[in-house]
Amino acid sequence: MSETSTAAASPPHATLGHRSPILRVIGIAISAWLLLSVVAAAWFGLTTPQTGTAALVQGLTLAEVLFAVALILLGSIVEGFGWGLSLGTRWPYTRNIVLLMLRGDPEAAHRMLATTVGLIALALAVLNPVQSSFVGLVLVLVTALFGMGTLYVLAGRAPAIVHGTHGLLAYLVFLDYLVALRLPGVSFPIYLEATGALHAVLLALFLGGMVTGQRGFGKPIEAFVRPRRPAQWIFVLHGLAALLVIGTLGWMEPLYPVAFTLALLQAGVGFFVFHAVNLKPRHPGALVVLHQSMVLLITSAIVLQWHW
Ligand code: HEM
């Protein structure tokens, strides 16, 4: 069922996204992921050698990492299936947001999950007042504000950099808690500065978000030989950053073999995303979700140093 209609009672600029069987399947997969996240976090907290508050902190940190993954994927569903303006530019909530979420509106689900991630970040800052908790909490709050900004980017009233920054901040939230889990006690800013392999990836994903923001809601990038429009120039920069990712990870291949292979695959996915965006600019679809899943895998493979 194709639904790109404007609801009669909706605020200005509110536009429903596209519903399809694949969206339903992805929705079920994300719900299952969230359920498994809760089970995994509870199991982790209960089986860790630590006890009491320390065990609770461990469980909550794992939940925060897994929820951040789901939140980023929900963001790509919102983008890929054209739900970005389903609630218009009203932020953060509408009165019926829970009902909308239960009816399968990914934008409503994105905001409710963001609220949950914010509450867990707050709980961690209270229960475990260390640098990673405070950095995480501040990042979640600033990401949320930029999330509001993305609505204005989609409505054509804010620059694309706001969209790129929102994506970058979302990954910093994910990485902050992942590093806290993997390397407890290590300062996140210092880790970030020292981990060169992440730099090009962060640049590429920032520019990817800017491509999305610059092309505008429902507009193609358009195939080109010489770039002319701003969206095409940013797309070229995004491609160059992707080459930088492949170059750095290739250079550090013995340390990051899985990340390097994933980056090579991502380049292929990227070309398909480009075609999907030009073919169906309003809802390029599941390829956008795949493109984003690959970024999550690449960043995880770097931090967790996955090897074959
Ligand atoms: C490892 C390298 C890459 C990373 C980390 C990356 C990451 C991203 C991210 C995070 C986005 C934003 C998605 C969103 O807003 O939901 C994006 C968008 C995009 N990427 Fe990439 N990307 C990479 C490589 C490529 C390559 C090589 C191409 C094409 C040849 C490509 C094509 C695109 C296109 C066309 C968009 C815009 C999608 C839209 O406007 O809906 N990407 N990328």
Automatic annotation (TrEMBL):
Keyword RNA-binding among UniProt keywords: no
Keyword annotations from UniProtKB, A to Z: Membrane, Transmembrane, Transmembrane helix
Transmembrane segments: 21-45, 65-87, 108-127, 133-155, 167-184, 190-212, 233-252, 258-279, 286-306
Name of the protein this chain belongs to: Cytochrome c oxidase assembly factor
Taxonomic lineage from the root: unclassified sequences, metagenomes, ecological metagenomes
